[in-house]
Specification:
Blueprint lengths: L5 E5 L3 H13 L3 E5 L2 H11 L3 E4 L8 H10 L8 E5 L4 H9 L4 E4 L4 H19 L4 E7 L6 H14 L4 E5 L7 H5 L7 H5 L8 H6 L2 E2 L5 E3 L12 H11 L5 E8 L4 H7 L3 E6 L3 H16 L6 E6 L10 H8 L3 E5 L3 H10 L3 H4 L4 H19 L6
The structure holds adenosine-5'-diphosphate and magnesium ion (MG).
């Protein structure tokens, strides 16, 4: 059950107090009352209401002083405050705002209006305090280096631990995540991209998430050629929406590019740049690292080496690191049998081959990232 929002009403006049309390109780709030400034400050400290409605003229401490004191205390500086007073000239209102009120309402006020103002104020604070996901973006230095495979497995690994996770395939070409998970992509990004981003509602994005048996939710990439147009406005809207829906948001971004991809990377807390230990990948990685640096994103970028095949002509990870001047955070060993099996049964390797070396490396990487994030605080909000 959702917790009721708590309102503290402060007025020295018991009739006004009872009436206001009644209105807010009827509207579904938990109501506390105080009859003077000292009682109000005590109740704020002990009961931590979500909103205070304060009268100005009270014996002892005035409502304006209560307001000032609440603003001066870091614990309550953010607290929504409405002043409700019979003194409702322009100068009185200016004094109220000067004291830190968010809103100033003259008595008598219609009950509907007071409830509407209180509701609007609380809704705004709620939006501000909404927790946001940790965003991990995976991007390849070129196509086919194993980004999707890595992210699908990381995402399922997170979800299987009961961590709420969304994997979003943000790309303007055909998506492959659903194939890896044996999911039917429904409309995925398609319907979203066909809607004008200015008219796009969060629920439209949420509705298109596909659910995997691990608990993972997926925003699948486009399936129709007509949908291959992912604009910056769409990406911003999708990110804004999804960031309030899960603890971890993983972004599958095929390659570095300006516009939407840059925007998505700027929204990421951690960027995983994926490459293979061979000359072409290294050349591309060098160029990509330069771009990320110029965007101010080098600090949050980690290098990830995926060896997809065993060959004496591949470079050693040491040589790759020396060439790029960056240490790799993780190395995924070549495991074609593991990933072919995973693809053929539509079950990611973390579920179909949990004991393999490649899965071991992916789990180790996922755990390292979880540790890194938990060291920097809980689900940031
Ligand atoms: N460590 C690995 N060993 C062997 N094959 C791999 C490995 N990682 C990925 N692959 C395979 O490489 C191919 C491309 O991977 P994919 O994740 O689709 O790349 P990308 O998303 O970068 O285009 C897939 O067939 C996948 O199964
Ligand atoms: Mg891919």
């Amino acid at each position: 059950m959702q917790q009721k929002e708590r309102v503290l009403i402060v007025d020295d006049d018991s009739t006004t107090l009872k009436l206001a309390a009644h209105i807010f109780e009827k509207a579904g709030y938990d109501v506390y009352t105080a009859m003077d400034g000292y009682e109000a400050l005590n109740k704020v400290a002990t009961l931590r209401p979500d909103l205070a409605i304060i009268d100005v003229m009270m014996p002892g401490m005035s409502g304006l002083e209560v307001c000032q004191r609440l603003r001066a205390n870091p614990d309550t500086a953010w607290m929504p405050i409405i002043i409700l007073s019979a003194k409702s000239g322009v100068d009185d209102k200016l004094d109220g705002f000067q004291a830190g009120a968010d809103d100033y309402v003259g008595k008598p006020v219609s009950h509907k209006e007071l409830l509407a103002r209180a509701g609007a104020l609380l809704a705004r604070v709620k939006r501000m305090h909404q927790p946001k996901s940790r965003v991990i973006a995976g991007v390849g230095v070129k196509g086919g280096v194993g980004v999707t495979t890595l992210l699908v497995n990381m995402a399922v690994q997170l979800a299987s631990q009961g961590i709420s996770t969304i994997l979003a395939e943000l790309r303007s070409t055909r998506g492959t995540v659903c194939h890896n998970l044996n999911l039917t992509p429904s409309e995925g990004l398609g319907g979203i991209l066909r809607t004008n981003p200015a008219e796009l509602q969060p629920r439209e994005v949420i509705r298109r998430l596909v659910h995997h048996s691990s608990g993972l939710r997926v925003l699948a990439g486009p399936t129709q050629v007509a949908d291959y147009a992912l604009t910056e406005a769409h990406i911003q809207m999708i990110l804004n929406t999804l960031q309030s829906q899960a603890e971890y948001l993983l972004l599958d971004l095929p390659q570095i590019a300006g516009g939407g991809v840059q925007l998505a990377l700027e929204n990421a807390d951690q960027i995983l740049l994926v490459l293979e230990p061979e000359a072409v990948s290294v050349a591309c990685a060098r160029a990509d690292l330069e771009i990320l640096k110029s965007w101010g994103l080098a600090d949050r970028t980690e290098l990830l080496v995926v060896s997809r095949a065993r060959s004496s002509n591949l470079m050693s990870v040491k040589d790759v690191e020396a060439e790029l001047g960056v240490q790799a955070l993780s190395v995924i060993p070549p495991s074609p049998e593991v990933f072919y099996l995973a693809a053929s049964v539509g079950k990611p390797a973390v579920l179909s081959k949990p004991d393999s070396l490649a899965v071991g490396a992916i789990i180790k990487l996922t755990t390292a990232l979880l540790d890194r994030f938990s060291a920097s605080g809980a689900w940031r909000g």
